[in-house]
Amino acid sequence: MIDHALRTLRGGDYRDAMNIATGQEPAIVMAPAIIVTTSTFWRNAWRYQARAYRHVYWETGTVLGNLLAVAADSQLPARPVLGFVDADINALLGVDGEREAAISLVAWGRTAARAPGSLPVPPLALETEPISAGEIEFPEIGAMHAASSLASPAEVATWREPSLEPSAGGGHTGAIPLRPIPAGQVPAETIDDVIDRRRSFRKYDTATALSFATFSTVLERSGRAVRFDGTKTDDAALTSRYLLVNRVDEIDPGNYAVSADASSLTLIQAGDVSTLAFELACFQEYAGETHVNVYEMADLDRALRRFGNRGYRVAQLEAAIAGAKLQLAAHALDLGAVGSTSLDDRVTAALAPGTEDLSFMFVAVFGERRRPIA
Question: Are 185 and 315 contained in the same domain?
């Protein structure tokens, strides 16, 4: 059952408990409201088994992509926070941390008023409606989540402090500047309307090329890095973006890398990539038919050196938010888009050179939708 409602779990102002659990993260301390996302692992594990742990962050990324877009449209400060004592946030919400667990926090707004002192946090005995007659446990999910959990406010503060080492970069040259639609010519539609009509499109117009300006706009608008509590302003993103282009005006079909600032492309290899895209997407036809496949790749060694085991969470969520932003940008321009899945390690090899040390995190496709015949 889907219950689109606000329901009180505890009466009172528990922001100070959040402050403590996040090691006094400034964005949380100054926030008048804090949004917590959780995941019930079985909701995806019944189908994807242990791989469902990826889907936890893909779905959280969709939620955060929408939240951050609404916040930006409203000029409301919002910051995703991934550093927190997992057990304390779970206890505050009354979830067990094993079947359902807190995944992210979002500091929502900013105020000079400080939270009152801590309130007691007695255990909650909440009835939960079963989502199926039975469940199968996949131990890898629990082990992965436990290994990347933080145990104390001091550990959270230490985790958050260092800066990321510079990204090695892909070393690509010969950039093609992107040419987005001028801001004044972008369709004037509210973000609420874009989110409301967003759908997963898998039917694309194979007879029509995507204009280079529209293509550029989707990449430029969705390519701006998202900052978490553990990243500094001048830190390079953990993820980088690669494309398989099928049909875009003014550029050849082929494999491309997108610059870190989302202002240009580099052609890695020209040629028909439609069959490759189809195969990488676990042989799903829409990947070969769409105009562009966008792969979010991450240097996991770099992420783990900086963030420890929690680095996988950060990299996966950064990639998923980028994918969510891409799909919103595509829908805002009346295109179709959908997130997909891929043959993980084969993606790394297929997009080379430049991806040898990178791991596949997320993929979304976009292009001109196949319209109904009038």
Answer: yes
Q: Measure the CA dihedral 262/62/189/326, to 10°.
A: 20
CB 67 within 8 A of CB 42: no
Residue 149 belongs to a domain: yes
Q: Is residue 84 part of a domain?
A: yes
What's the CA gap between 83 and 193, in Å, rounded? Answer: 32
- 3-class state of residue 188 by DSSP: coil
pLDDT band at 161; cut points 50, 70, 90: confident
Domain count, the chain: 2
Of the residues 160, 184, 210, the one at which a domain ends? 160
Q: Is the pLDDT of residue 173 over 70?
A: no
Whether residues 144 and 196 fall in one domain: no
* Residue 51: CB atoms within 10 Å: 15
Q: What is the CATH number of the domain that holds 271?
A: 3.40.109.10
Contact predicate 116/50, CB 8 Å: no
**Runs of H (alpha helix) within the chain:** 15-21, 26-29, 42-48, 52-73, 86-93, 139-147, 153-160, 191-197, 212-222, 274-280, 285-289, 300-307, 311-332, 344-350
210 and 152 in a common domain: no
Q: Per-residue pLDDT tens for 20-78?
A: 999 999 999 999 999 999 999 999 999 989 999 999 999 999 999 999 999 999 999 99
CA 96/CA 102 separation, integer angstroms: 9
Residues 317 and 354 in one domain: yes
Mean pLDDT lowest among 63-72, 110-119, 144-153: 110-119
Query: Where in the sequence is the domain holding 219, given as residue range(s)?
Result: 175-367
Residue 374 lies in a domain: no
Same domain? 97 vs 209:
no
Confidence of residue 143 (pLDDT cuts 50, 70, 90): very high
User: For position 230, what pLDDT does the model report?
Assistant: 84
% of the chain with per-residue pLDDT over 90: 69
